[in-house]
Design a protein that fits this description.
The protein is α+β, with helices and mostly antiparallel strands. The protein has helices at about 15-20, 30-50, 75-90, 220-235, 250-260, 275-290, 320-330; strands at about 60-65, 70-75, 95-100, 105, 115-120, 130-140, 160-165, 170-175, 180-185, 190-195, 205-210, 240, 260-265, 295, 315-320. Strand 9 and strand 10 form a beta hairpin. The longest helix has 22 residues, at about 30-50. The termini are far apart. It binds 6-O-phosphono-alpha-D-fructofuranose.
Length: about 325
């Protein structure tokens, strides 16, 4: 970052940060740092391709559907391959669980870590230039041989979790359980540089985010909360305003930085909601708790819920303490 005199301020690059943060930290084996670097490498290439997407033929649907019968965008496939190649090349992980693949990919049976990820969340927004993101989390493998118990975990067991939002700038936000830090990609030097140290979610919500078209399918208790929320907004009792772009990482990141509540609840049509526990909700819950916020499934702490299969969906509420306390009161009334 240039000062007015053109002097480079002390830039804390991600590499330097990882080294400094992990000295004397249980993850300081260097292996974990390398896994993070492998994830960041994939993110840098995804950043490049997304910013070229308009120029090359990788926009639009790839013609297939993923394990969730969702139309797969070409960039989804590309991003998935990037994550896999980068982490497989590193050779430090036992297995990978991706939103794009039904089954885990076993990489190195003697690897000590399992990485779960959504390589490109919200990709249907790419064609209309709405920010999209990658979401990831890292677990320690439990036994000597990789098996389902190594990824059917509670979010509280995450060693690290984070996301990359590919927006007006590309920002990596992650935590290893010691607070949350944000790094902005300086493309001129190809480095993520510390830009948002020690992120804390504002206690008071500026925004609320949910898909209004589903309101009629919400529980009566949740509808009562939404009514209360809107009346507080209308009377000015609360500064809160609606913001929803339909891209989890983008909606979540805005609310993390400005204060807000994100909701993707269960409905009469989809009681389990839409978002997946392992590689969407649990990483975001880890981040928001580390930033001083709250995340639940509408009933219990999100990080206490164990995945019973890799692609388990779960209702998701996450955000600032003020509104999370109110929605909890309504849901438990
Ligand atoms: P809806 C994108 O498809 C996604 O998985 C999340 O990124 C986003 O929060 C959600 O779905 C939006 O879903 O039903 O509101 O369009």
């Amino acid at each position: 970052m240039q000062t007015t005199l053109g002097i480079e301020r002390r830039m804390m690059t991600l590499d330097r940060f990882i080294d400094e943060q992990e000295r004397g930290f249980e993850l300081a084996t260097g292996e974990f740092s390398q896994i993070l670097r492998d994830i960041v490498l994939a993110a840098k290439v995804i950043h490049r391709e997304i910013n070229r997407a308009g120029l090359t033929d990788i926009l639009g649907a790839a013609g297939g559907a993923n394990v969730h019968a969702e139309q797969v965008q070409k960039l989804d496939l590309y991003a998935n391959e990037l994550f896999k190649q980068s982490l497989e090349t590193g050779g430090l992980v036992a297995a990978l669980v991706s939103e794009e693949e039904q089954e885990p990919t076993v990489v190195n049976p003697s690897g000590r870590y399992v990485v779960v990820f959504d390589p490109l969340d919200g990709s249907s927004n790419i064609d209309v230039n709405v920010p999209v993101g990658s979401i990831f989390a890292v677990y320690r493998k439990l036994g000597s041989r990789f098996g389902p118990d190594d990824y059917l975990r509670k979010g509280s067991e995450q060693l690290a979790a984070g996301y990359v939002v590919y927006g007006s700038s590309t920002i990596l936000v992650y935590s290893t359980g010691n607070g949350v830090n944000g790094f902005t990609l300086d493309s001129s030097i190809g480095e993520f540089v510390l830009s948002h140290p020690n992120i804390k979610i504002p206690a008071v919500s500026a925004y609320y985010s949910f898909n209004d078209a589903e309101l009629h399918r919400f529980s009566s208790r949740l509808q009562a909360y939404i009514h209360d929320l809107r009346s507080r907004a209308a009377t000015g009792e609360s500064p809160i305003k609606p913001r929803y772009v339909g891209s989890l990482v983008s909606d979540f990141h805005r609310n993390l930085m400005k204060g807000g509540i994100f909701m993707y609840p269960g409905t009469s049509k989809k009681p389990e909601g839409k978002l997946r526990l392992l590689y969407e909700c649990a990483p975001m819950a880890f981040i928001v708790e580390q930033a001083g916020g709250v995340a639940t499934d509408g009933v219990q702490r999100l990080l206490d819920v164990r995945a019973d299969h890799a692609h388990k969906r779960i209702p998701f509420f996450a955000g600032s303490p003020d509104e999370m306390a109110i929605v909890e009161r309504f849901l438990k009334a």
